[in-house]
Amino acid sequence: MSGRPDLHQRYVRACQNLGRPEKPFIAQVLREADKDDKIRWTKGITLKIAGNNHLVPVQRVTDYDLQVLVSVLHDSEHVTGLDLRYNVLTDAGAEHMATFLQDNSTLQYLNLMFNDIGTSGAELIARGLQRNQTLTCLRMTGNKIGNEGGMFFALMLQNNSTLEKLDLGDSDMGAQCLIAIATALKWNKSMKMINLNRPLLYSQEEETTVHIALMLKNNLSLVELHLCKHEMKNFGVERLCEALYKNSSLRYLDLSCNKITPDGVKFLGELLKQNQTLEILDLNANRLGDDGAIYLSRALALHNRTLRALSVVSNNIGGKGLVALSDAMKTNMELSYIYIWGNTFDEATCMAFSELIGTGRLKPNCTDVEPYEVDGHVHLAELSHGLQKHYYWTPSCGEVNNKDANSSLAIAQVSEY
C-alpha cells in the first residue's frame, strides 16, 4: 500500500453523483481515516461507523448511505475492516453490501450486528460470500434472518474457504438450519469461530446438540464455539463431551444460559481430566450448585492443566462449592481467570477469594469480584469483568487496552479481529 487515500473527497463526489446528502458522521470518519498515517505502513484500517457511539453526534447509516459508501470503498485498498453495527440497514442495504463483497479484494472484517437485515438480505450476503475470497470475519448478530436465512449461510459454508469467524447469534434461526450448519462444518476446513447463540427451538429432544457433537468429532479447525441459550440439558452435555474426547482443536466452549445440572457437570469433569486443548469454559447461568462446582474443582485440582478461564456466574453455588474452586486454584497454576458473581457468598467464600487476590494468585483484573472490609468482615463487590465483556459494545473513547478484563480476547486470539 502506498500513497495517501482520499476517501473523503471520493465520498463528496459520490454523494453528488448519486444525488444523496452527505452524512456528517460518515464524512468525519472518512476525514480521520485520510489523516491516519499508519494505513500507509500497515495492512489497513477499520472504518468504525457504529450507530451506538455516544461520544459524538451520530446519524445512523441507511441503505442509501451504504450505497454511497460502498461506491467509495470499491477501489480502496486501505480499508480492510468495516464496522456498521447498530444502524438501520435493511435487505436493500444488504443488496448493496452483497454486490460489494462479490468484487472486493481487500475487506477482511465486516460487522453488521443489530441492523434490520432479514431473510432475503441474508440470502444476498451469503451468495456474495460464495464468490468473495478475502473476508475472514462476519458478524450478523441480532439480524432476524430466521431459519431460511440461516440455511443460505449453511450453503455458503460448503463453498467458502476463506471465512474464519461467523457470528449468527440472536438471529432467530431454527433447528433445521442449525443441523445444516453443523453438517457443513463437518467438511469446512477454514472456520475457526462460530456463534450460534439463542436459536428458536421447539423440541426437547436436543437433536441440534447431537448434530453439533457429530460435527465436533470430524471438524479439525474450529477453535471457538458458542452455544448459549440452546435449552441444553445433561443429555446434550454428555453428547458434546463424548465428541470432545476425539477433538483436538476446540479451545473455547460457551455453554452459558442452558439447563445443565450437577449430573451434566460430571461429564464435563471427566472430560477435563483428559482434554488437553480446552482453555475457556463458560458455564454462566446454568444450575451447577455446590455439587457441580465440586466436580469441576476436583478435575481442575488433580488432573487438568490446560483450562485457563472458567465462568460459573449465577449458578446457585454456595460457600462449599466456591471454596472448593478457590482451593483448586492453589494447586492448579494454569487456571488464571475465574468469574463467580451471582452465587451465594458466605464468609468462607469471601475470605478464600480475598486470600487468592491478596497473595497475587488471582489478579484483580482476572475475576469479577473485589474484596472489601466492613466492621472487620470481608465482603466481595462486583467488577464489570467477564468472558464477553465487549461482545455487544466496545469503548467509544478508544481501543481496549486491558484485555484481561475480557479474557476471551486475551486467551483465544481467534475471538479478536
From TrEMBL:
<dbReference type="InterPro" id="IPR032675">
    <property type="entry name" value="LRR_dom_sf"/>
</dbReference>
<keyword id="KW-0677">Repeat</keyword>
<dbReference type="InterPro" id="IPR052201">
    <property type="entry name" value="LRR-containing_regulator"/>
</dbReference>
<protein>
    <submittedName>
        <fullName>LRC34 protein</fullName>
    </submittedName>
</protein>
<dbReference type="Pfam" id="PF13516">
    <property type="entry name" value="LRR_6"/>
</dbReference>
<dbReference type="InterPro" id="IPR001611">
    <property type="entry name" value="Leu-rich_rpt"/>
</dbReference>
